[in-house]
Amino acid sequence: VSETLPALAQIALLVAALAVSVPALGCYLARLYTSERHLAPEQATYRLLRLDADADQHWRSYALSVLGFSAASVLLLFAFGRLQQVLPLSIGKAALPSDGAWNTAVSFVTNTNWQWYSGEVSAGHLFQMSGLTVQNFVSASVGLAVAAAFARGIARSDADGRVGNFWRDLVRGVYRLLLPAAFVGALVFVALGVVQNLNAPAEVVTLTGQSQMVTGGPVASQEVIKELGTNGGGFYNANSAHPFENPNPLSNLFQIYLILLIPFAMAWAFGHIVRDRRQGRAVLAVMAILLGVAVTLLMVSEMTGPGSAPSLAGGAMEGKEVRFGTAGSALFAAATTGTSTGAVNAMHDSLTAPGGGVAMFTMMLGEIAPGGVGSGLYGMLMLAVVTVFLCGLMVGRTPEYLGKKIGQGEIVLVALYVLTTPILVLAGTALALTTDAGLAALQESGPHGLSEALYAVTSASNNNGSAFGGLTSGTPFWNTLLGVCMLAGRFVPLVLVLGLAGRFAGQRTLPPSAGTLPTHTPLFVALLSGVALVVVGLTFVPVLALGPIVESLS
Amino acid sequence: MEDLAYLLLTLVFFGLSALLLGAIDRRSGR
Predict the structure, then answer these.
(1) How close, in Å, is residue B2 to chain A by CA atoms?
(2) Which of A30, A121, A258, A342 could form an SS bridge with A269, CB 3.0 to 4.6 Å?
(3) How do residues A108-130 score in pLDDT, each as one tens digit?
(4) Residue A50: pLDDT above 80?
(5) Residue A13 burial by CB count (10 A; 0-12/13-18/19+): exposed, middle or buried?
């Protein structure tokens, strides 16, 4: 049976569901991050933790709060991993090794969820629930908070660099958005057949008479925030390819919907926060165009995979689950790499060479299509500033974005932002490929081996977390390298974004003039899409040529 | 010993991030 019709049906259903829910959620998010009213549970939390949620923080205080909170989270989760064997509900799991515990702590605090370990083998229930899942909520909320602060920085005028209150944004993101949505979503997952219990592993006898341990656990509750918060860390090593996490095509489509929902809604919310809805729609349109291109390329390459075996099987089925098929796998792969999710429902190592290249390129875009929760919006806005600056200079227009001048100080911050991740990716990959410890972890040699290393470092530096497979990453070298990439890939851009937010907030908003480049028109949407592709293309095409491109030509 | 090394690495990274923040702030203050 041809997969084309089910593929188109899945896309149509997904687009319809997003079209209905994104505007409503976007309006809700805008109110959430601009309202002055606190709810009772929030006030109780502020009192308990002695937080001043009414202080309007300077961007410097806001950024220090983010860094302090994240540093404490890394250290706490590191200790959790090292001590899990003495904690309740450890179900016999030993402590993680030092490098592994640190990598895991960094991975979950940075919203990356790169997993060097098998969840069902290494992580006890309490570590999964109180350590990893809690970070899935708060790391997502940190990303949303920073995006909201950036949007407020643009919307404010003469605010002396004040961008809001981090603690208020953090708590509201968890209490008003992620917790209620995750509760409902977890129930939907349970109804669709995802496992949810606190059982120890059960021993079963297989049809061939072998003994096998089957691990249950709080899977549905972790699964929902894994997707909703664009985290990606699975309860099981097989992630969303495991039938206990993702049992059928409907649960697969629901997972993709959850992955894309908040990143798109944040773009909508942006339009409301800056009091010009057209701006939000323009940003959303660029996200949708880039994602649409990635989905199309991935689907075509996987459904018509090269070689006789794929043509006989009706698609490149190696490494894919039969219950999802090539279309369900390709759609998932585009969504998970276009956001900072990193969940996988198929082996990305088995994607066709062009398909693997598209997955990598989508991550290299900086995950702006539509990106991680919060990070997608601020990543896209940074590129919008680049576009305004480049195009404004080319046509002789004043470089300004939404009434904020783009001067030397602003463009330096944006340039540093744009350069940070490529430096991490290219230098990290070079380090891995020039050291024995790095090379020893590769399964393949030649272009595919390069792709394995490049994908891992790209995934970590962009806080994606998906794994190509084939790479034995649980070694001290790789755990440390990828940990540093995750930290720098998250917090250096974040400080730069908040610095720019502060500069914008300190400026007086200029009224549009005849010299202003409109940033809500189809022309600007095309320009921004082009700038994203050109900037990333110029940076990464050489290394892609050595990996997936040369592999697909051979 | 290894635990201490990773603890230090974490503190050094966040310390450097705070320095970056300070540098941006000083530049903005001009």
Answers:
(1) 6
(2) A30
(3) 999 999 999 887 888 888 888 88
(4) yes
(5) middle
Task: Provide the pLDDT for residue A76.
Answer: 94
* Residue A279: strand, helix, or coil: helix
E strands of A333-488, at which residues? Answer: 400-401, 404-405
User: Which member of A98, A496, A503 has the closest CB to residue B6?
Assistant: A98
**B3/A495 touch (CB, cutoff 8 Å), yes or no:** no
Q: How far is A110 from chain B (nearest CA, A)?
A: 13
First to last CA, chain A: 30
B4 in A contact zone (CB under 8 Å):
no
Distance CA(A83)–CA(A95), nearest Å, equals: 6
Which residue of A lies nearest to B27 if distances are taken between CA atoms? A409
Q: Across the interface, which of A98, A495, A506 has its CB nearest the CB of B2?
A: A98
Is the minimum CB–CB distance between B8 and chain A shorter than 8 Å? no
Alpha-carbon gap, residue A548 to B17, rounded angstroms: 34
Percent of chain A with pLDDT over 70: 100
Query: Would strands A211-214 and A400-401 be described as parallel, antiparallel, or unpaired?
Result: unpaired
User: Which residues from chain B sit within 8 angstroms of residue A101, using beta carbons?
Assistant: 6
Q: How many A×B Cβ pairs under 8 Å?
A: 61
The answer to whether the beta carbons of residues A141 and A174 sit under 8 Å apart is: yes
Q: Which two tokens stand for residue A352?
A: 């066709």
Residue given tokens 């380090």 in the structure block: A431
Cα end-to-end distance, chain B, whole Å: 44
Q: Per-residue DSSP letters for A386-421?
A: HHHHHHHHHHT-B-EETTEE--HHHHHHHHHHHHHH
CB-CB neighbours of A262 under 10 Å: 31
Query: How distant, in Å, are the alpha carbons of A99, A106, A169, A275 from that of A152?
Result: 39, 28, 12, 10
* A488-504 mean pLDDT: 97
pLDDT over threshold 70, residue B29: no
The pTM for the full model equals 0.94
Round to whole Å and give the CA distance between A347 and A335.
15
Q: What is the ipTM of this complex?
A: 0.96
Comparing CB atoms, the residue among A75, A484, A495 nearest residue B20 is: A495
Mean pLDDT, rounded, of chain A: 93
pLDDT in tens, A407-420: 999 999 999 999 99
Q: Is A431 exposed, middle or buried (0-12, 13-18, 19+ CB in 10 A)?
A: middle
Burial code of B1-30, b = ≥16 C-beta within 10 A, e = fewer?
A: eeeeebbebbeebbeebbebbeebbeebee
Contact A139, A109 (CB under 8 A): yes
Q: Is B12 on the interface with A (CB under 8 A)?
A: no
DSSP SS3 for A516:
strand
Half-sphere exposure in the Cβ direction for A98 (13 Å, CA): 12
Name residue A211's beta-bridge partners.
A205
pLDDT for residue A444 is more than 80:
yes
Confidence (pLDDT) at A1: 55
**pLDDT tens per residue across span A247-266:** 999 999 999 999 999 999 99
Q: Does B26 touch chain A (CB under 8 A)?
A: no
B14 chain-A contacts, CB cut-off 8 A: 67-68, 70-71, 491
